[in-house]
Amino acid sequence: MVAVLQSVDELEALLKDRPDQSRTYKIDPGVVDEMIEFIRSHPSGANSRTMDPAEVEELARYLDVAVEDFPGRLTVTDIACSGCGRRLTILDIAKTGVDNGLHSRELMAAVLTGRAGQWVTVRGKDGGRFVDCAACGLESVTPIDDYACSPVAYAWA
Ligand SMILES: [Zn+2]
């Protein structure tokens, strides 16, 4: 069940009274421009970094898309796995969701390439998303509280 945000007011209300769990919402196509403008004026991710080309390629391979299919740079909270030291990326977020049955690989591919429109992730009271390391399987000690796949999906502190 996909929740659709139809106005900036709805997003603001969610930020004032956050959901228990971090959640991704689809943005109504009619309000994408104002929504993106609002999101950009409230930057998050002080601890974020840009994924490097090898990481983007790894994600593209996992989602079975081309690197060029991503419409912009990919950023993610800069944390490393406490088990094996892997720097976590959007791949770890995507794979954790797929492995836990939250969404299909096809849906993740459609969302992250922009084929499925614009989305925003609202950080919940849980502080973000704990993810399982794609290399060793260990769950992250701290949550990923920001990621962006411009202009497709924003997770937003
Ligand atoms: Zn690991």
Ligands bound, unique: zinc ion
Percentage of residues in strands: 15-25%
Percentage of residues in helical conformation: 25-40%
Return Rg in Å: 15 Å
Tell me which oligomeric state these chains represent.
Answer: single chain
Give a written overview of the molecule.
The chain has 5 helices and 7 strands; from the N terminus they run βαβαβαβααβββ. It has helices spanning 8-16, 32-40, 53-63, 90-99, 105-113, and strands at residues 4-5, 23-27, 48-50, 74-77, 119-122, 147-149, 153-156. Strands 1-2-5-7-6-4-3 form a 7-stranded mixed β-sheet. β6 (147-149) and β7 form a beta hairpin. The radius of gyration is 15 Å and the shape is globular.
Give a brief outline of the structure:
The chain contains 5 helices and 7 strands.
Salient structural properties:
157 residues, alpha/beta, seven-stranded mixed sheet, 5 helices, binds zinc ion
Secondary structure layout:
Blueprint: E1 4-5, H1 8-16, E2 23-27, H2 32-40, E3 48-50, H3 53-63, E4 74-77, H4 90-99, H5 105-113, E5 119-122, E6 147-149, E7 153-156
Parallel strand pairs: 1-2, 5-7
Antiparallel strand pairs: 2-5, 3-4, 4-6, 6-7
Zinc ion binds next to loops.
